[in-house]
What we know:
This protein is mainly α. The chain contains seven helices and no strands. The chain has helices at residues 26-31, 74-83, 91-114, 121-124, 127-133, 135-162, 166-172. The longest helix has 28 residues, at 135-162. The protein is elongated, with a radius of gyration of 27 Å.
Amino acid sequence: MENTAKDPGLLPGWGIDADPKNDPTYPMRHRMNVGQDPDSKHRPTLQLVDEEVLKSIERQNVSAVFGTPLPPHGLSGAIRRWAFKYSESVYPHWLPLLLADRVDMVEGVLADLVHGHVPNIFAERGAKMDWKYNRSGFIAKLATVSLLTAGAIVLLSSKDEKKPSKKHRRCQA
């Protein structure tokens, strides 16, 4: 694939928002009797950073507005911090973030159990709707999980039979 510079003026749709009358917000601004975006030339006031906010290494600052409902925490937070050491254009950034989401889900289940709440994973995963609307997919998912669980049990139990236990080794010595 050839990487050549192209004249942006020749690209279809380029600069389509250059005409202020073609701006999608124009009708509302016209109704509000505001001629132009009041402060389009300056960066908006930054939200105060009072919690840990992970930001891309490609950016100098955090974005003007960001969410803080769930700051990074636990093992998933450590994985996220590690992922944000890499550029957004490489796999070591995105794959750990996917893993961190799964780890965060397990941490949430464990936190529920610690607080005495037994989560209804079947309902939270939408199994009832899967059964109703995607029965074949649900059965395939259930079969896959069953096979993986059975395989893990067989694998773990077969290692125990070959390896003598610590107690058995002490008795032989």
